[in-house]
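Thread: quick sanity check before group meeting

JM: Hey all, I'm pulling together slides for Thursday and realized we never actually wrote out the predicted structure for the chain we discussed last week. Dropping the sequence here so it's in one place. If anyone has concerns about the input, flag it before I start.
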Amino acid sequence: MPNYLGVDYGTKRIGLAWADDLGIALPIGAFPGVDDSSYLEKFREVVEQKKINEIIVGYPIHMDGTVGIRAKEVDIFIKTIEETFKIPVHRVDERLTSVAAEQAIGKQSAKKKKQNLGKIDASAAGLILHDFIENRKIIAPPGI
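JM (edit): ok, ran it. Output follows.
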């Protein structure tokens, strides 16, 4: 029975969503991103608690389909996750997911938006995971 973890990668925050074999992607929150040295420890807690056996990471492709610096950062993140947890990690095109997540949360004051940044990241992770579950459009790792 699959337990999926959707990930919206970030240097400041990592948004997360979870789904089981029912296939309903649920945002579960965010924690400090890769700029924070504790991110792997927090990631491990979620992987163990939710019994994750597949990880789906949003892959930031440019609108013209090219891979840029941010996608290369995600490749490093994915390699670290694969080596640390020995769990399959899939890349999914994340173009516009953060924009869609922000629109879903709605127009808010600047102060309220700042308070909800983790919700936006978790919602983006939910959209990434939902897209994977619905479409299974996995992006091949670079060099393949």
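AS: nice. Helices lie at 39-49, 69-85, 97-105, 110-115, 117-135. DSSP finds five helices and five strands in the chain.
JM: adding both to the slides.
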